[in-house]
Design a protein that fits this description.
Layout (H helix, E strand, L loop, with lengths): L5 H17 L19 E2 L9 E2 L7 E5 L5 E10 L5 E7 L3 E3 L4 E6 L12 E10 L4 E10 L5 E3 L7 E2 L13 E8 L20 E10 L5 E10 L4 E8 L8 E10 L2 E6 L3 E2 L8 E9 L9 E3 L4 E3 L10 E6 L3 E4 L5 E4 L2 H5 L8 H10 L5 E4 L5 E5 L5 E10 L7 E9 L1
Parallel strand pairs: 2-9
Antiparallel strand pairs: 1-3, 3-7, 4-5, 4-8, 6-7, 8-9, 10-12, 11-12, 12-15, 13-14, 13-16, 16-17, 16-18, 19-28, 20-21, 20-22, 22-23, 23-25, 24-26, 26-27, 27-28
Length: 415
């Protein structure tokens, strides 16, 4: 076992003075050494790491672990702030309890981030475990002093984005609502180097979305891991209106966790209603080939009429683009289509039509201008010219041949 005597200290001090005076100081200076013997000693709880940033006045969840047979006497905590001399923050008698996860004694050690520590300062904490037989074991960790994390809505009051494009009063179960949030507003990604200015913020470990139906307990709906390491981050979180909420208010809650800090913001409640039906049913047909005029090729879904060939493409929502053995349809403008899957069709996508489901489906899936080859009973969700939604079903298809026209009959539902 090593011992550090007073006589040795007298011999070393002159040399130590020469070394300190002739060498450039490190970011964290050592003005002392601590004898440490081999043996087990650990910092933190099993599988729970200490954070890399803490804010002034925060209590760090510091624990030491050790074997009960080693007979710990007490724990001493030293602290080094930047290039300031080290200080003892306290000595704490052993009072560990058995932890079944690690199979060791675990003892909480009080440690609080200094109130006056400047933002961006690196701090080292040395924790010495002192045992009854005189042995010492040193464990250390470092962290950077940072401003407390922040979480807020991008606007006050928050302005949600209804992904189905319907009014806030027309939202139903399964609809998706986007909320724009700002994490660590104005925060820097790294410690500023003079003359740069700004605050270094704590990193946020996770951003969790909850919902509450009426006055029921809140339910976790989703989580974003490590949304920021400290820099400002504006992001939109999509929240889905839950099932069994029709006729009740639904409130979305966002909670961020940053080391020992928890931040919570709550959006205004949404009154959930029944889906809006696509109640208007219309039919149409388009044709093309050697025996028909060019005026039959395009259809205007808003007016429910054929769009003349001489008209500009802006209103040509459905266009017969292939008239051979494989009849194909496309849009000549910015109308976009999503082809429903057989499973969606079997589940009543067309027979129980509502604008909420169609619009949400369009938002969640890739849409195209060219739907390709069509056949009877094909079903398409349609976003007409970037605005209203419709539901289209092919009734019949007649392929074209030499001297014969290709024809497509269809029906569609709209508001």
């Amino acid at each position: 076992m090593k011992h550090f005597s007073f006589r040795t200290l007298l011999l070393v001090l002159p040399l130590l003075g020469l070394l300190v005076g002739g060498c450039k100081k490190a970011e964290l200076d050592d003005y002392y050494t601590t004898d440490s013997e081999p043996g087990f000693a650990g910092l933190g709880l099993p599988r729970v790491a200490l954070a890399t940033r803490y804010a002034p006045t925060e209590a760090v969840p510091l624990y030491v672990s050790y074997a009960e047979a080693d007979k710990l006497r007490d724990v001493t905590v030293f602290q080094v702030i930047g290039k300031i001399d080290s200080t003892v923050t306290g000595t704490f008698p052993a009072n560990g309890t058995y932890n079944t996860t690690g199979g060791l004694q675990v003892m909480p050690v009080p440690y609080t981030v200094p109130t006056t520590a400047p933002n961006g300062t690196l701090v080292r904490v040395d924790v010495t475990l002192n045992f009854q037989n005189g042995a010492k074991r040193l464990r250390r960790f470092t962290y950077t002093v940072a401003a407390p994390a922040t979480l807020e809505f991008a606007t006050t009051p928050p302005v949600p984005t209804y992904r189905n494009g319907l009014a806030g009063t027309a939202q139903s179960e399964g609809d998706i609502v986007g909320y724009s949030l700002i994490l660590n507003k104005g925060g820097l990604g790294a410690v500023p180097v003079p003359p740069a200015t700004g605050l270094l913020f704590k990193g946020i470990d996770s951003l969790t979305t909850f919902y509450r139906i009426g006055t029921q307990p809140r339910v976790r709906a989703g989580v974003v891991r490590n949304p920021t390491t400290g820099a400002a981050n504006t992001r939109t979180v999509d929240a889905t209106i839950p099932r069994n909420s029709n006729g009740q208010p639904v409130t979305f809650i966002f909670e961020a966790y940053a080391a020992v800090q928890t931040l919570t913001i709550t959006a205004p409640a949404i009154n959930v209603t029944a889906p809006t039906p696509l109640a208007t049913l219309r039919t149409g047909r388009i044709a093309g080939g050697p025996s028909v005029t060019l005026d039959s090729l395009a259809f205007n879904l808003r007016t429910g009429t054929i769009e003349p060939a001489a008209n500009p493409p802006a209103a040509k929502d459905l266009f017969l683009s292939g008239t051979g053995n494989n009849v194909t349809l496309s849009a000549a403008n910015n109308t976009r289509f999503y082809r429903a899957t057989p499973a969606q069709v079997a589940a009543g996508f067309y027979t129980s039509p509502n604008a909420n489901l169609v619009a949400t489906t369009l938002f969640q899936n890739t849409t195209v201008a060219d739907v390709g080859t069509v056949a009877a009973n094909d079903v398409f969700a349609v976003r007409v010219r970037g605005a209203e939604v419709m539901l289209l079903r092919i009734l019949s298809v007649k392929a074209g041949s030499a001297g014969a026209a290709a024809r497509v009959r269809f029906e569609y539902r709209s508001l």
